[in-house]
């Protein structure tokens, strides 16, 4: 269900269940979490096999869950999203085809989201009596702002690639999203890791400036040590 490989300095994690639009079961979430935990490249690239990025949770699984089991399933998805959000390096979601529900939420946990012209994205849970329980209600407003997040989450409407870029849900529309991961990986790896960590955990402006100063000094010191 999950395929992990390395492409140079990029760890490539593929959601590989195309017959179900890469929808995730409990086993799939466990495999995905293990793949993220096992990766060590400076950049991790997440994408889907076939014609979809990820349809989110497998509804055939969800429909059979009791209340406690549903809470555990949501927690498993949150754990995977958290692993992506705290990865020791930069994470890139390459979206080709449909991303729905939990698929959007996994992409939101990544540092960079890029898509192809054929991509569509929707937080469609509300139409099914559900909502984004893999961190969607927390991360979506941070990415697109509260007003746009409310529109998307409450309407469940799908965005095409250009509207997704216009609202900031993705940063680029490209033919091959993996090229963006390789572009990032071509930079200094220590700097990539440092910048990714700083961007994820902004402090108040004064504290953030202090963190930037210290991280910059550490990176310069590392370069000086290598030159010496």
Automatic annotation (TrEMBL):
GO terms of molecular function: catalytic activity
Chain positions covered by the region annotation Disordered: 200-228
PROSITE patterns referenced in this protein's UniProt entry, alphabetically: ENOYL_COA_HYDRATASE
Pfam families for the chain: ECH_1 (PF00378)
Domain of life: Archaea
SUPFAM superfamilies, per the entry: ClpP/crotonase
Gene3D superfamilies: 2-enoyl-CoA Hydratase, Chain A, domain 1 (3.90.226.10)
Coiled-coil regions, chain positions: none
GO biological process: fatty acid beta-oxidation
Family: Belongs to the enoyl-CoA hydratase/isomerase family.
Name by which UniProt lists this protein: Enoyl-CoA hydratase/carnithine racemase
